[in-house]
Design goal:
The chain is an all-alpha fold and 271 residues long. The chain contains ten helices and two strands; from the N terminus they run ααααααααββαα. The protein has a two-stranded antiparallel sheet. The longest helix has 27 residues, at 60-86. The chain starts with a helix and ends in a 5-residue tail after the last helix.
């Protein structure tokens, strides 16, 4: 009776895949040792928790890891724009309002992520020190008055990375609707930032193939994989005319980056 009452309080969207997994187990599919042990002990709540882990492959630790990872990226962007807007003579007058607004967005993202992490009983990762020369790849860059072109290039690199980074982590948040929704609301704004900055540099608002849009060669990993033309196992170019050819197909979809790929991209900017 107690277990039935507990089950009746579960979100149907959460319960449905668990029930499907239960049916698969009943038909002979392999179950994790934790599920078997929980069922053997007659503990339906514990078994449901183990089944949920089987279904979603995600735990509260995964969610916190994503949040801390996202916070580090937002620290990077917030610091970059804060220093850029504060620099004397760096940003021309017409662009100051744009980069000031982006700065404010990024600082809001930082504050939001810190609050969410704290609300989950964890301590937000500390803000690291940054090296915006990328360990010398942009030797001499110091937000100087003549370095606006470099500042724009870095802004594009960071925003394009952020879009792909959030996309790459979405699957790890499926079991936490609140955090997933928050991450997606940030992701879409990062995409708007990327489009705005790209156009300010005279680029298209979207990525064509794996083109880095004239950025320094060391930024190429940000764009690798964007030339993909297959989605959900379907070669989009095979659908015939009207899809824009190879370039149009790659422009129509953004590809995710894994956490390891993103860390490799941003590590040169960590002092």
């Amino acid at each position: 009776m107690e277990n039935t009452a507990i089950i009746n309080t579960l979100d149907p969207e959460l319960l449905a895949p668990i029930i499907s997994r239960r049916d698969a187990i009943a038909k002979g599919a392999s179950a994790s040792s934790k599920v078997v042990a929980a069922l053997a002990l007659g503990s339906v709540p514990i078994a449901l928790g183990a089944l949920a882990k089987d279904v979603y492959g995600q735990t509260p630790a995964d969610v916190l890891d994503v949040l801390q990872f996202a916070l580090t990226l937002e620290y990077l962007e917030a610091e970059f724009y804060t220093r850029g807007v504060a620099a004397t003579g760096l940003i021309p007058g017409a662009a100051v309002a744009v980069f000031t607004q982006i700065r404010d967005h990024e600082n809001t993202h930082v504050n939001t992520l810190r609050t969410v992490i704290g609300g989950k009983g964890a301590t937000p990762v500390a803000k690291p020190a940054f090296d915006f020369t990328a360990k010398g790849a942009l030797q001499g860059f110091n937000f100087g008055a003549t370095q606006y072109a470099t500042f724009q290039a870095l802004a594009q690199a960071f925003e394009d990375t952020g879009v792909r980074a959030y996309k790459g982590q979405a699957g790890r948040l499926i079991g936490d609707k609140v955090v997933l929704t928050a991450a997606l609301t940030i992701h879409s704004v990062e995409a708007r930032h990327a489009s705005q900055v790209r156009r300010m540099r005279g680029q298209k608002g979207w990525i064509t193939g794996n083109s880095n849009g004239g950025l320094p060669a060391f930024t190429q990993p940000i764009y690798n994989g964007e030339e993909n033309r297959t989605q959900a196992g379907l070669d989009i170019t095979a659908l015939g005319a009207g899809n824009g050819g190879n370039d149009g197909v790659t422009e129509a979809f953004d590809e995710p980056l894994t956490k390891d790929q993103v860390l490799a991209i941003v590590t040169p900017f960590l002092a």
